[in-house]
Amino acid sequence: MKSQSEVSLPLPMASEGSHVRIVGFHGNQRNAHRLAELGMNPGVILTLLRNNGGSLLVAVGDTRLALNYGMAQAVLVCPLEREVS
Amino acid sequence: MSDCILALAGNPNVGKSTIFNALTGMRQHIGNWPGKTVERKEGHVQVSGRTMTLVDLPGTYSLAARSLEEQIARDFIVRSQPKAVINVLDAANLERNLYLTAQLLETGARLILVLNMADVATSRGLVLNPHALSDELGCPAITMAASKGQGLAELRAALQGL
């Protein structure tokens, strides 16, 4: 589900306020399926608004989603250096 | 007293209740946060002398129900078999909204697509082509800015054809 050349890390390891692109999911399919339903598909750009070590707040388009740590851990992302509007 | 049942379905916070209020003249509470409608609400719409029952369903991302609100929405669409489902979409975030549309189409329900918040989409430079969407999915598509009352006449016209 993810391309080899990209750096990818679990979403909770990205820094607060950063923009990241989803490159894939790991863990069970149930989580991946639910995340896709919520609009979190590979290629989608997220903003990590808050990460308090327990749960995360992300912005996907105009929607904010709260994710628990386990769910967020299943999301593999690639940090984007440039600002995305 | 009522001809048929219609349902309003869509993702959370896309304007379903705003459209519900505009069509029924009711004042269902609306708020700018997702999950405002947690149970279904009913009202009546008058369309050229006919009375239709309109059901405002809770917002859902999918019909594979995980939460109570999603179960309410799914059960209604699947079991009550409304005459038509008015699928409200956020025109500024179409891609994610169309996931539910695909699932609704799979249920075999007759859909009317409402691309709501078209004003927001336009202000971001997005160009909507409802005809292309309509041709591709085989159901009418209407652009709307429900908070400003734009597009309601077109929706009423579409309801007339049911």
From TrEMBL, chain A:
Sequence ranges assigned to domain Ferrous iron transporter FeoA-like in this UniProt record: 9-79
Superkingdom field: Bacteria
Annotated SUPFAM superfamilies: C-terminal domain of transcriptional repressors
Record key words, sorted: Iron
UniProt feature coiled coil, ranges: none
Pfam families: FeoA
Any one GO molecular function term: transition metal ion binding
Gene3D superfamilies recorded: 2.30.30.90
PANTHER family the UniProt entry points to: FEOA FAMILY PROTEIN, SSR2333 PROTEIN
Protein name according to UniProt: Ferrous iron transporter FeoA-like domain-containing protein
Organism: Candidatus Viridilinea mediisalina
Automatic annotation (TrEMBL), chain B:
Keywords: Cell inner membrane, Cell membrane, GTP-binding, Ion transport, Iron, Iron transport, Membrane, Nucleotide-binding, Transmembrane, Transmembrane helix, Transport
GO CC annotation terms, alphabetical: plasma membrane
PROSITE patterns, per database record: G_FEOB (PS51711)
CDD domains the record matches: FeoB
InterPro entries registered for this protein in UniProt: FeoB_GTPase, G_FEOB_dom, GTP-bd, P-loop_NTPase
A Pfam family that the UniProt record links to this protein: FeoB_N
Alphabetical list of PANTHER family matching this protein: FE(2+) TRANSPORTER FEOB (PTHR43185:SF1), FERROUS IRON TRANSPORT PROTEIN B (PTHR43185)
The name this protein goes by in its record: Fe(2+) transporter FeoB
Species: Candidatus Viridilinea mediisalina
